[in-house]
Amino acid sequence: MALNLYNTKTKSVEVFTPINPEKVTMYACGPTVYDYTHIGHMRKYVGDDILRRTLMFLGYKVHHVMNITDVGHLSDDADTGEDKMEKGAAKTGKTVWEVAEFYTDYFNDTMHAINVLPPTFLAKATDHVPSMIGLIQKLEARGATYETSQAVYFDIHAFPAYGALSGQKLSDKEVGVRDDVIVDPDKKHPQDFVLWFKRVGKFAHHTMHWTSPWGDGFPGWHIECSAMSMEQLGETLDIHTGGIDHIPVHHENEIAQSECATGHTFVNYWVHHDFLRVDGEKMSKSKSNFYTIDDIRAWNIDPRALRMLFLQTSYRKPLNFTRESLDAAAKTLRTLDIFVASHRALSGNGKPIESYLTDFKDALSEDLNTAKALSVVWEILADKNNTPSDILETILVCDSVFGFGLNTILTEKIPQEVSALAEDRQQARLEKKWNQADELREQINKLGYTVNDTDTGYIVLKN
Ligand code: AMP
Ligand code: ZN
Description:
CATH architecture of the largest domain: 3-Layer(aba) Sandwich
Distance between the termini: 38 Å
Low-confidence stretches: 175-182
CATH superfamily of the largest domain: HUPs
Shape: elongated
Oligomer: single chain
CATH topology of the largest domain: Rossmann fold
Bound molecules: adenosine monophosphate, zinc ion
Number of strands: 17
Largest sheet: 5 strands, parallel
CATH class of the largest domain: Alpha Beta
Strand order of the largest sheet: 7-4-3-12-13
Number of helices: 16
Helix content: 40-55%
């Protein structure tokens, strides 16, 4: 079955045809590890995860590389301001290396909590500086760079196709560029971007630095992604993902430098995820609407509920997060959990129902229409014609794409103490001792479990 994917490059939905179906190459721009991973990041990486799981479900082998930006990303994407990592270090009193390690761990833990599959290869920028230097040298040999006392720049006029991804003309961009972007008097055009920052001027004390043919310094953010993706996946990638904020600068720059260096198309399919807002506003610490996995846990909500929330909207549409929408998604997820838990004993006895799997695949192949794919699952749950064991197996197959981790519920062991309390509660209910039943439910809750009453009896699940 063909997967139809929206390609930012052509601004249309196209049939996905990989260069080699035995190894689909997918590169995802990773986080800059100077601060906590928030729910907006989670939306983007769940989006990548759904794309990867869909490709695997369709039978492709996927080589998924994601980077960790731990150097070179300035506070403005267009090379102005401070290095985000150095700022993070100054704020916390830690070294930049400690900051990078702390927030990388936080990112990885968050991804684990929401069942995002780890990339096949996680590329830390600071581990790949030699390949970035090599790529800059290649560009230099092609006459696409120039050096000033402060930096090595990519000369934007070396790539006349600049702007094709975002539909900007170079001349429009020239007008739009702010004056304060020009901080180096020897920079030729405002849109030229930095390949290598020298350890001079405001960066004279930059902690992370390497020797290079242009002196001591550090790489720019854009060259990092080009160098690491091509080193790991070859000169032309099948898929490159990122948030929509990356289209006008970061990804335009990646295309310009990569194609100029190799003479080949850099990426066949550009996939961009729209943003998450909170209560109708951009997330920010000053507005106290910057939520992390710790907040979700503090609200006693299963982090997997975020996945349910994200999948209800197309990855290409903005999504507004509210507490109410998260609570509703948590309830919806519980329905699935309860179904699986109450049919645990049937696991392995049935076989997936082909007609539903076809509908499920059709939905996903419409540019990853997860909302429609979820509606297929609700249809399956309501089915009265097939056996519960076949229904269970079908739902588990769908979950290989949704990633709710329903199969772990099959094997979940409920502690003896909790089971005994649940039995006592059931007895109290039978004897219509409602207050006692409520107290027992409370005790079970305190131990981290919930009792759910269903038509066929009660089910105990982890909170
Ligand atoms: P950053 O660490 O800021 O480079 O972000 C890592 C990834 O998360 C990038 O692809 C961003 O586009 C994406 N991202 C950042 N904020 C949000 C948000 N509020 N909603 C969705 N994606 C986001
Ligand atoms: Zn990137």
